[in-house]
Amino acid sequence: MSVPVMTVPGEPRAAGTTAAVRAAGLRKTYGTGETAVHALAGVDVTFAAGEFTAIMGPSGSGKSTLMHCLAGLDTATAGEVWLGDTPLTSLRDDQLTTLRRKRIGFVFQSFNLLPVLDARENIVLPMQLGGLRPDPTWFDAVIARLGLRERLGHRPHELSGGQQQRVAIARALLPRPDVVFADEPTGNLDSRSGAEVLGLLRSSVKETGQTVVMVTHDPSAAAYADRVVLLADGRLAGDLADPTAESVLDALRGLGA
Amino acid sequence: MRTVVLAQLRTHAARLIASSLAVVIAVGFVVATLVLNETSRSTVLETVGARYVGSAAVVTSSSGESLAGDVATLDALDSVGAVAPTYETGVQVEVPGRGGSQYLSVQSVADAPQLRWEQLSTGRLPRGTGEIAVSDRARAQVGDVLTVSTYDADGEAMTSEITVTGLVDLRGDPEAGLYARGFVPEQTAREWGATHPTELRIAAGPGFESDQVVRDVTAAVTGDVVVRTGEEQAEETAADMMGNATALASVLLVFGTVAVVVAGLVIANTFAVLLAQRTRELALLRCVGATARQVRRSVLGEALVTGLVSSGLGVAAGIGLAALISALVGSNSAIPLSGVAVPFHAVLAGMVVGTLVTVLAALAPARAATRVAPLAALRPVDPAPLRSRPGVLRLVLGLLVAVPGTALLVGGAVMGEVLVALPGGVLSFLGIVLLAQRAVPPVVAAAGRLAGRFGGVPARLAAGNATRNPRRTAATATALLIGVTLTSAFVVGAASTRATAQAGLAAEFPTDVVVEGFSGELPGTLVSTLTGTEGVERSASVLAGTVAGPDGEPVGAFGVDRDEAAATLRSTEDLVLPGPGQASVPEWLAESWALRDGDRLALGGVNPDQEVPVREFTVRVIDADNPLLLDSAELRTLAPDASLGQVWLRLADGDPERQLDAVDRITDVVAEASPDTQVTGLVTVRAEIDEILDALLLVVTGLLAVAVVIALIGVGNTLALSVVERRQENGLLRALGLTRGQLRGLLAWEAVLVAGVASVLGVVVGGSYGLIGAASVLGEVGDIVLDIPWLQVGAIVVVATLAGLLASVLPARRAARTSPVAAIAA
């Protein structure tokens, strides 16, 4: 079965040259005194542009917290985050919100779509919030690539889990953001839909130079990435290049997970 | 299960109480009404009772028989200590220093001290003839000498003088403010025209009980009389006085019922949403072994406790409100209030009504809660949209009720029969409420599409949210719809009633001001002076003369110039003006002369010396109180002695206050020019009716506003609860790029859509009811003028919508404050 390749208007992004997003000395603490929880205890990490990176770690390692801080969804207690050349930590809520329309894309584990809107409206929603109109050629390419042509008029409750995630990915890719953050995107899917979703994320990176940062606990999902960053107890605990399921599993075992 | 119920209550207490604010208000209203009614009754009883405190027995005659003859008989009884007959009459008094005379209602004071009940604020009661005590309303001082005008037994006018010895304090008497009262010895009252005593108050002799006295008195008196104990008489009199107040209480309770119904709708809605949120909890309960029945009972248990608590709060609030009103109104109003008398039935009614409404309202949501499948607890979080079933039964039932109801309503209006239209109105309204669930969501959707066009993404999302849960939207909108419908029905109905009444009044009293002389003629210069007075627009001279009727007898006639008079009159519908050769004959005269429209009438002069020829006129029978009306030139021919008898004036339109000022000016001018002249300002009658209608309308609107306020609380509640329900969704929106301001805008749009649609539908339905209602009530009266007060109707829509917007502020702020992460991770 031939899969249409996404073509990009304009020049392709150069891979591996600039940092798409990076953090320095990132700390996130909840509570005070004795009951304080140090979700992130000083993290320095850089994510290259045009790469598919997976963040992994046992429960409570702080991987979701790290992603939230990198994406500007949560404020860090200390440290700096840059999205490209933009420092996020000094921005106000409105500015961060505007950033999320164009420069950051999201795919969550569940509850990705607004139940009142159909697939098409969900896909264009972030751009619409910014008053932008999507490029029709690009829109068609994304839809075709994700196989959603027949589903555009359907509401989320009329779509299967896998289809819903594909709509979410289309939404994330449409504005061609600096980074797409995916938080356990296959957590609620069966293995076949899950593989499909991971394949789509990977091909978006390869074909259009999109940067994707994915949080996962599943080693076989992490194997789709170019690089795996390991977290344990709020700190960086490892960095793998060209991971396979086995190498990831070994690394996790090394963490004492 | 009890542990579960109590734990739920503890956790959700704040939210439940806030939701039940509606019940608190409704119960408070009902309780306040009942308490005020009782307070008023007890205040009046106390006052009236004061009069009969010393009386062991009271003898009255309903047929007006003279009781005077029984006085001696009763006095002779052993058990009777003293007998005081009460004589009542009325006189005109002039108080020194105050112009004009005023009416004084006079009562005799008992000779026996134990039967004197009057409380004095200063001075003392009269001891003999020539002395009087008066009430504050007379505005006299102790020591003033009053000039009294009375008519003696032969009808001859007499004046006398009397000195004020004391001022009587009539606090608490509802009629104290109506007219002044005077208290005189028995003899003076009889001199002033009192013929028979209206009652006999009897004090018990030393050592005798009132039962004994009553028995002895009953045995001793003859004729058609009633003997009661002092207490019984007090209650009887109080009940008479309270007649009106009871009617008022009944009316208030009708409004209370409306408030309770609206509160019930709000509670039902609130519980439905609360339970929808707790789907997973309920499913978990079912998983671990609770039966459907146990789940339903736990929900009803929560409702019961909520109902009891909010009813308790409502009762306290109602008593507090009544105490406040009592303190503000005081004891000198038409409905006297002093302190607070809380009857047990008020507290009971409040508790029962409030609790019952809450539990009943929770029945349907409780049943829905039992249908939650245990598996729902195990599914991943999936806030599926609460698609409600089509509800065919509701649709059919609604149509079954609404269609015949509307037919009855319209039929009643056309026929002018209130008794047909009223049940029609109730039925059709019930039908509309049932159909609202079907009708409202599509309208909201349509309005939302319109709003989305210029409101941007938040508006379109808001429209979607409102239609996503039709049952919830409809329930909220229905509560508001009821309140707005009733309010607009009254506003429009009253406007049409007023317009019709005014038109009728204008026809019946077409002159703004009538100046007429009692003895002799008015000076001819008066007309020009009056025309020049500020505020007077036009004038017409009316000649008065005597002519000889067809039977030769002299009869008074007026002469007018048709054009001049037509310009001055407000309406010539009833008072048809005669042209040359015509005579406008009032009905009473036409009857005695056996004349009909179109007959020929021969009139001549009364003075044979003047040699006035007989002339014939064509008759127009008119429905008016005037004498025979002829053209003024022709009257002068028939009655050469005719002179200026009346002047009709038309005032400039505008502010009733200014018109009343003009009447005062006219009165002054007339008093100077011609003392024995009366100025009747019919414009004041119209102004008074306007005032009464306005006051009534204000009160009614205020009362209905309570229902609207409750409904708006419902809107706020629904929004607050839906915000909590949609935490994840709102978090997602924030993550995707919706700013805080846009999120607040989203919720504001939702509130505006629901409140706006409900209020527009409400004024349309309510306005129709108002027009139809007015037509059916006034249909018998005559021609109906339908008036739609667009300004007030528009104001209702605007205010209700703005209030809905206001209701969204707090929930919106809370929603916007949550961080995107917290919302999604929930």
Strand arrangement across the biggest beta sheet of chain B: 2-3-8-5-7-6
- The chain-level mean pLDDT of chain B equals 80
Strand content of chain A: 15-25%
Ends apart, CA distance between termini of chain A: 40 Å
Give a short account of the largest sheet of chain A.
6 strands, mixed
The pair of chains with the biggest contact is: A-B, 28 and 29 residues
Gyration radius of chain B, rounded: 36 Å
Strand content of chain B: 15-25%
What are the low-pLDDT stretches of chain A, counting only 5+ consecutive residues below 50? Answer: 10-16
What's the Cα radius of gyration of chain A? 18 Å
List low-pLDDT spans of chain B: 380-388
Shape of chain A: globular
Give the key terms.
A: 257 residues, alpha/beta, 6-stranded mixed sheet, 10 strands, B: alpha+beta, 6-stranded mixed β-barrel, 6-stranded mixed beta barrel, globular
Short description:
The complex is a heterodimer of chains A (257) and B (826). Helix content of chain A is 33%, strand content 25%.
Please explain how this structure is put together.
The complex is a heterodimer of chains A (257) and B (826). Helices cover 33% and strands 25% of the residues of chain A. Chain A starts with 18 loop residues before the first strand and ends with a helix. The model of chain A is unreliable at 10-16 (pLDDT under 50). Chain A is α/β, with parallel strands linked by helices. In chain A, the strands form two sheets. Chain A has a six-stranded mixed β-sheet with strand order 6-7-8-3-9-10, with helices on both faces. Chain A has a four-stranded antiparallel β-sheet with strand order 2-1-4-5, covered by helices on one side. Chain B is an alpha+beta fold and 826 residues long. Helix content of chain B is 58%, strand content 16%. Chain B contains 23 helices and 19 strands. In chain B, a hairpin with a 5-residue loop joins strand 6 (145-151) and strand 7 (157-168). The model of chain B is unreliable at 380-388 (pLDDT under 50). At the A-B interface, helix 2 and helix 3 of A face helix 11, helix 19, helix 20 and helix 23 of B.
